[in-house]
């Protein structure tokens, strides 16, 4: 077993640190001191011992050793395989699917070309029934099933199509989100795509990785909003840039809000810091914020290391001054006041909509719980090329938008088999459904989410008339990746008891508002067993009492069941969302597997 496989011992004293390989390398002395302090959290110790960015060169070597049969993934150093690999975007699914990885990408502003869609499909194709993808709540893609033996090839494959998986996990910046209909939107102030791309290129050095920004005290989320809908949710990002018109010059500038985030311990809504930046200042500003965070952020109690904690400790004025200093002595402008006489109804992007370009449409299609079976990557690419301009957009609601579709092509697009599964005319619950990964793959989950979410939506839509879209968000634990607190109805995995025994349960949140006047949902009820026989009547009651739903005129169906002859529109996918042991999936290497053995086959 070579040096690389030996256990990287925790650093006992600062003098033992090898600065070449340590995560301390790009930190100033004060930040090094915090990372080396006795009270530094355990992830700081892992980073001091070896920087996660080292995996960019070590993964190809390790994968090659595995391919040659000289080692096994089980023999690799635990901190490398379970923690540091995340700097390369590879998340070991030790608890649910040991030996396989989820690969998280960066898709700035959620835009993908048909070539990229096919390339992503190619990455997961070899894994047969174990491979699939997900659209995430940051309008991003995660791929599943990747093995250590193929890890380097997967990384190279996504780099070859102009994407990257670097710096997507642990203490790095997450996918930069923008307006999903940027460039097409009659109501946008600016096209957010080049801005998101520029910020990302700064962070990850054009995809090659940027060692200077790999050791933040914690994750950080950035988004750019260009309309009153606030599609990328500035209020729950650590850094939100809101395009506004500066009345004096008529120029678009960006008001800055800071500090939104969710966690087990605290859920914070971002607040304005009385700062605006010009288009030219956007990326230098983000870079300065990241460096101030890196250099001044706490590295002790991990529950208190997100950006807001540092800004609260410094004070807003001191924070602004520091950012200006890091930008080379810039005096940052104050924010631009914004007021609107009339209310703005946040737009629903599902369905067929005219673009600002005459004669062209965008078509939002509902992807059931955000899950993309491997074959659908290829089909999406074909459909986008056949009827649109060959590109698609992803949304934070885990859906897909086909863009630049000539009016004359809309009918053809709507008739595609893919759009019978990814429906542009989805029901008023399905179109508002968001679900995190849940226990199928996520080791932190308290409950299964996606499959359950789909079944409940189907049952509720079958029995209720619902007057308007109700946004139901599922999140498998209090980390709230599924953003339960922004939903009309948020369902969060939580403990519950049934006949004195612990069972999977949920906490229900109600009343989240997004867009203008955003507010977090408040806890409504806790301890509800997640089994459908308990949860379905509870949701039915909430929909009737709080959202004006009415029972459908009899369709012959019992409550919570489909009526006779009423086909389940997602029936083909219905069974594919629940974990089963991975032992045999019937897939031969390199071929899509027989779905019978797939791990998302229904079993509960
Ligand atoms: Fe998340 C950790 C999935 C968006 C807050 N999140 C995780 C991990 C990596 C845990 C793990 O190792 O298993 C999950 C991977 C599961 C898997 O196999 O997919 C995971 N998070 C997700 C995704 C995929 C949920 C989804 O189904 O869409 C989202 C990926 C976004 C992306 O493309 O990067 C995702 N996570 C979020 C969001 C929502 C957002 O960004 O708007 C949040 C809340 C907002 C925030 O971060 O402030 C979120 N995830 C967390 C946290 C709590 C962070 C904290 O400060 O405490 C954790 C746990 C942690 O970091 O310690 C976490
Ligand atoms: Fe996993 Fe919890 Fe995030 Fe869901 S909310 S993906 S269960 S960490």
TrEMBL record:
It comes from the Eukaryota. Keywords: 4Fe-4S, Heme, Iron, Iron-sulfur, Metal-binding, Oxidoreductase. Its cofactor is siroheme. It comes from Ostreobium quekettii. This is Ferredoxin--nitrite reductase, chloroplastic. Residues 94-160, 353-417 form the Nitrite/Sulfite reductase ferredoxin-like domain. InterPro entries: NIR_SIR_4Fe-4S (IPR051329), NiRdtase/SiRdtase_haem-b_fer (IPR005117), Nit/Sulf_reduc_fer-like_dom_sf (IPR036136), NO2/SO3_Rdtase_4Fe4S_dom (IPR006067), NO2/SO3_Rdtase_4Fe4S_sf (IPR045854), NO2/SO3_Rdtase_FeS/sirohaem_BS (IPR006066). Residues 170-328, 431-532 form the Nitrite/sulphite reductase 4Fe-4S domain. Pathway: Nitrogen metabolism; nitrate reduction (assimilation). PANTHER family: FERREDOXIN--NITRITE REDUCTASE, CHLOROPLASTIC (PTHR32439).
């Amino acid at each position: 077993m070579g040096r690389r496989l030996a256990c990287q011992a925790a650093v006992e004293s600062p003098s033992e640190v090898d600065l070449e390989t340590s995560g301390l390398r790009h930190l100033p002395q004060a930040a090094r001191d915090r990372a080396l302090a006795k009270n530094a959290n355990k992830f700081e110790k892992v980073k001091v011992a070896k920087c996660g960015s080292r995996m960019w060169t070590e993964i190809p070597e390790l994968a090659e050793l595995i391919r040659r049969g000289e080692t096994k993934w089980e023999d690799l150093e635990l901190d490398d395989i379970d923690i540091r690999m995340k700097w390369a975007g590879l998340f070991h699914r030790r608890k649910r699917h040991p030996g396989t990885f989820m690969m998280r990408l960066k898709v700035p502003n959620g835009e993908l070309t048909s070539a990229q869609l096919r390339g992503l499909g190619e990455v997961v194709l070899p894994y047969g029934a174990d491979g699939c993808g997900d659209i995430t709540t940051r309008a991003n893609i995660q791929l599943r099933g990747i093995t250590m033996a193929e890890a380097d090839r997967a990384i190279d494959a996504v780099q070859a199509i102009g994407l990257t998986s670097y710096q997507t996990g642990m203490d790095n910046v997450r996918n930069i989100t923008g307006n999903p209909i940027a460039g097409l939107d009659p109501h946008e102030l600016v096209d957010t795509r080049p801005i998101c791309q520029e910020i990302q290129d700064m962070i990850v050095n054009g995809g090659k990785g940027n060692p200077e920004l790999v050791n933040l005290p914690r994750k950080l989320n950035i988004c750019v909003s260009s309309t009153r809908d606030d599609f990328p949710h500035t209020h729950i990002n650590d850094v939100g840039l809101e395009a506004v018109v500066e009345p004096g010059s008529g120029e678009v500038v960006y008001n800055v809000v800071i500090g939104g985030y969710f966690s087990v311990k605290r859920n914070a809504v971002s607040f304005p810091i009385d700062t605006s930046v010009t288009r030219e200042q956007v990326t230098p500003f983000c870079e300065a914020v990241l460096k101030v965070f890196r250099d001044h952020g706490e590295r002790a109690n991990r529950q208190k290391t997100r950006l807001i904690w540092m800004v609260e400790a410094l004070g807003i004025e001191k924070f602004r001054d520091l950012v200006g200093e890091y930008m080379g002595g810039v005096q940052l402008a104050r924010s631009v006041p914004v007021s609107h006489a009339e209310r703005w109804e946040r737009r629903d992007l599902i369905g067929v909509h005219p673009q600002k370009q005459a004669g062209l449409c965008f078509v939002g299609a509902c992807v059931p719980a955000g899950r993309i079976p491997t074959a659908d990557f290829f089909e999406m690419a074909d459909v986008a090329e056949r009827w649109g301009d060959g590109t698609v957009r992803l949304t934070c609601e885990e859906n897909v938008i086909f863009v630049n579709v000539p009016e004359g092509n809309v009918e053809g697009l709507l008739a595609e088999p893919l759009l019978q599964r990814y429906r542009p005319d989805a029901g008023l619950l399905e179109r508002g459904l968001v679900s995190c990964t849940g226990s199928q793959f996520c080791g932190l989950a308290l409950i299964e989410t996606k499959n359950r979410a789909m079944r409940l939506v189907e049952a509720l839509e079958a029995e209720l008339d619902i007057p308007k879209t109700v946004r139901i968000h599922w999140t498998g634990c209090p980390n709230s990746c599924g953003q339960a607190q922004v939903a009309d109805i948020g369902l969060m995995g939580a403990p519950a008891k049934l006949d004195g025994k612990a069972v999977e349960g949920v906490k229900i949140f109600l009343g989240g508002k997004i867009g203008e006047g955003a507010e977090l949902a408040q806890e409504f009820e806790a301890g509800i067993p997640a089994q459908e026989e308990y949860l379905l009547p509870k949701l039915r009651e909430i929909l009737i009492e709080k959202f004006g739903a009415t029972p459908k005129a009899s369709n012959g169906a019992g409550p919570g069941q489909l009526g006779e002859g009423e086909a389940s529109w997602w029936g083909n996918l219905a069974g594919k969302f629940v974990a089963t042991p991975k032992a045999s999936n019937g897939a031969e290497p390199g071929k899509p597997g027989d779905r019978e053995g797939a791990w998302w086959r229904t079993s509960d």
